[in-house]
Amino acid sequence: MAKYKLQDILSELGVDANAPGGAVAPLLARKPHAIDKHKGALTSLPAMPGNQGGSGVRANEGDRSAGSGAGADAAVVSDSAQVEGRGAVSATSRAVEELTSGAAGHLVNSEPVKEEATGLAGGVVNGSKNQDHPADGSMATARRGGEQPAEVQDLLGMLAVKGVPADKLTAAELIIKQSPNRKLVDALIEQGIDETIVQSSVAELAGIPFERINLDKGLDGGFDGKLLQRLTAEFCKLRMVLPLRTEGQRPVIGSTTDNVFLADDIKTRLGVPSIKMVLVTGYDIRGALEIIGESVAAQTSEDNMSSILSDVEEGDVQVERKQVEETDLEKAAGANPVIRLVNVIIQTAMKEGASDIHIEPAEKKLKVRYRIDGELCELLNPPASLSAAVTSRLKIMANLDIAERRLPQDGRIRCVVGGRKIDLRMSTLPCGHGEKTVMRILDSRSISVELNQLGFSEDAMTIWSKSIDAPHGINLVTGPTGSGKTTTLYASLRTLDKTAMNICTVEDPIEYHLDGITQTQMHEKIGMTFAMALRALLRQDPDVIMLGEIRDLETAGVAVQAALTGHLVLSTLHTNDAPSSVTRLVNIGLEPFLVGAAVNAVLAQRLIRKLCVHCKGEQAPSEEILEYLTMNGMSTEKIFVPKGCDKCRKTGYSGRVGIYELLCVDDQLRDVIARNPNVAEFRRLCIERGMITLRQDGMQKVNSGVTTISEVLRVTDGH
Is the separation of the CB atoms in 184 and 254 below 8 Å? Predict the structure, then answer.
């Protein structure tokens, strides 16, 4: 039906629209309401039975005598009655009669037209009651004037009761006042308010259920994969919905809004007569879609990832959580290649004996590199499309926020791989093509080695064992990150009698758990520093104290005082060699005479690669190497060289061993330290008194066929 003009309708009914003093003229002169401009206004009126009474609002008798304005209205009603009295009329005439009488009644009674409000989750408030909307546009004027619907105030009030800061609520309210098209829920979340609190409050006001999606269960109870296939991931991402489960014959759909039209669309797509809508958070929906969204890409990888994943056995990798039973990651392996790919990455690291896993997204591929024997090597290249899914899976395993991609995050994953319990210390860092993930593998077997298996020479072993058996003093282990300092300290602690001694440690973080030893975690953000923890430990009647690191004057001062008052202190420093550790303590701010009195021994160390025992070979040295061997008093007949085989990945090296520089502080050196010598002078004096340097110890291992000259020179460059 075409759109009608009010003048034509009134003319058909015999009403003079231009009569002076009438009530119709002001109606035509009034500024049109916004709804009158809508393309669907006054069109497609439904057909009505000819004799059905109009539902328009009639003017009553009192209103007809209310003045000249009311007289015109009465004439309109009278004419309508005449039309009705003629018997059966067309549906169009009846609709015109209803429209006209309703308009006239509105002018007489000023009765407001009711309009159904939109939901808060979709605009104002979910499932809100109808609110008055005067036909003259006063509602829009009120909104611009600063007033808000009662439902908005109800939600803001509920959030205030739940402890949401008032400044955030005020800011969100100001946003929707200035931008009428903005959703209040979005404005609240943008202010940093927890989405769970916002959505649960919306659901409570609307009287609909609110749920959290179990992302850990994934397709095994967290959400419905079959229904998701029918809806498609693209639709769910666009409309922010997720099928959760089926209750009887009715699917349960999680959504961020309570929208009738969206529900109809979902019913059509699923082909079901009814669904149950529950309110969920957008955080949960995005997390679920990130877990499963890239599964198809994994199956079509150019690297034929399907053949790699097919080798993964059930139970190969299991997540171990505190207060929760071990979760088998293989339960969903058949349905989710991403989970299987993550398992392959971890299993490969354990198989190759890697210490670190680097997952680096690039433009066209995802690089997976492993640090094996101190060197990075690239072993896997999944497609770049799997980057977000792999990172999200690892974040879930580490209990990190999968929605936060702009900030670095740190976490810890406890796994069981091939019957071995391992910890993965995980760190994420935003980069150009996503997030780079690095995991340090903390395997208890790697530190379960005896002190005599670390590569000490016989003399060094004797001196170090005597130092850690001393009743008091400080023993320092120095070297760069990854040089094996923690392994050496733990091996030293295991030689002590834990039943007769009180052994305590302060670490940042606690990498390995040792039986019979009290281990304390440092938390610098809350004031739990090394110095504070050390002071607390001194009140625990300790015999031996291990400090993770001496970083500042306060920690160094407390450690020295502990050593001088009858405690044995083991700690680490980041210095290049043993003699420079003594001068470093002086430079930190300690008095030289205190350093000389407290320090017993300093052990500098590095890790070098060992020759593969399966493929190493002998050959005559070149002229250059021959000259170097002669200068160092070594055998010049033959030297061992790396060959390369399948067992060592064609590198010629397998495993690592330590080289050591041990400085034992005796009475003469204590007097020298008290005079505060410079580093070069002190190092020269230590060598003159018989200290074996890192390079000298390395060359002894070359002479024994353990490693190569090039490896020693690489590690001890500058020594």
Answer: no
Q: How far apart are CA 230 and CA 451, in angstroms?
A: 61
Position 255 scores a pLDDT of: 92
16: helix, strand or coil: coil
What's the CA dihedral at 90, 95, 97, 102 to 10 degrees?
A: 170
What's CA 121's distance to the chain center, in Å?
A: 26
Burial class (CB in 10 A: 0-12, 13-18, 19+), 154: middle
The values of phi and psi at residue 299, to 5°, are -75, -20
Write out the two tokens for 67: 């003045």
Q: Phi first, then psi: give them for residue 386, nearest 5 degrees.
A: -90, 0
The b/e string for 44-58 (b: 16+ C-beta within 10 A; e otherwise) is eeeebeeeeebebbb
The candidate with the shortest Cα–Cα distance to 682, out of 589, 606, 575, is 575
Helix (H) or strand (E) holding 397: helix 387-397
- How many CB atoms are located within 10 Å of the residue 649 CB? 16
- Exposed e or buried b per residue across 189-213, where buried means at least 16 C-beta atoms within 10 angstroms of its C-beta: bebebebebbbbbbbebbebebbeb
Task: State pTM to two decimals.
Answer: 0.54
Contacts 24+ apart (CB under 8 A), 358-366: 358/436, 358/437, 358/438, 359/390, 359/391, 359/394, 359/436, 359/437, 359/438, 359/439, 360/431, 360/436, 361/387, 361/391, 361/431, 361/433, 361/434, 361/435, 361/436, 362/433, 363/433, 366/390
H or E stretch covering 90: none
**Torsion of the alpha carbons at 560, 561, 567 and 569, rounded to the nearest 10:** -20
**Measuring CA to CA, which residue among 530, 544, 550 is closest to residue 477?**
550
For residue 549 the two structure tokens come to: 């690191």
Q: In DSSP terms, which residues pair with 277 in a beta bridge?
A: 253
Distance from C-alpha of 61 to C-alpha of 75, rounded to nearest angstrom: 12
Residue 362 backbone dihedrals phi, psi, to 5 degrees: -120, 180
CA distance 568 to 559: 9
- For tokens 């939109």, the residue is 118
Helix count (H) and strand count (E) of the chain? Answer: 30, 22
Q: What values do phi and psi take at 450, rounded to 5?
A: -80, 160
Residue 507 dihedral angles phi and psi, to the nearest 5°: -130, 160
Q: What DSSP string runs through 625-652?
A: HHHHHHHTT---S-EEE----GGGTTSS
DSSP H helices in 86-224:
91-109, 138-145, 150-161, 166-178, 184-190, 195-206
| 3-class DSSP state of 22 | coil
Long-range contacts of 88-94 (CB under 8 A, 24+ apart): 88/50, 88/51, 89/50, 90/50, 91/45, 91/47, 91/48, 91/49, 91/50, 92/1, 92/45, 94/48, 94/50, 94/52, 94/54
Rounded distance between C-alpha atoms, residue 153 and residue 51, angstroms: 46
List, in sequence order, every beta strand (DSSP E) within 385-495: 409-417, 420-431, 434-443, 473-478
Would you state the pLDDT for residue 465? 93
Task: List residues bridging with 431 in a β-sheet.
Answer: 434
pLDDT of residue 475: 96
Beta-bridge mates of residue 497: none
Closest CA to 509 of 369, 597, 411: 411
Question: Residue 283: its pLDDT value, please?
Answer: 83
- 658 by DSSP, 3-state: which? strand
Ranges of the chain with pLDDT below 70: 1-149, 292-336, 718-719
Task: Give pLDDT, residue 603.
Answer: 96
How far is the C-alpha of 648 from the C-alpha of 668, rounded, in Å? 47
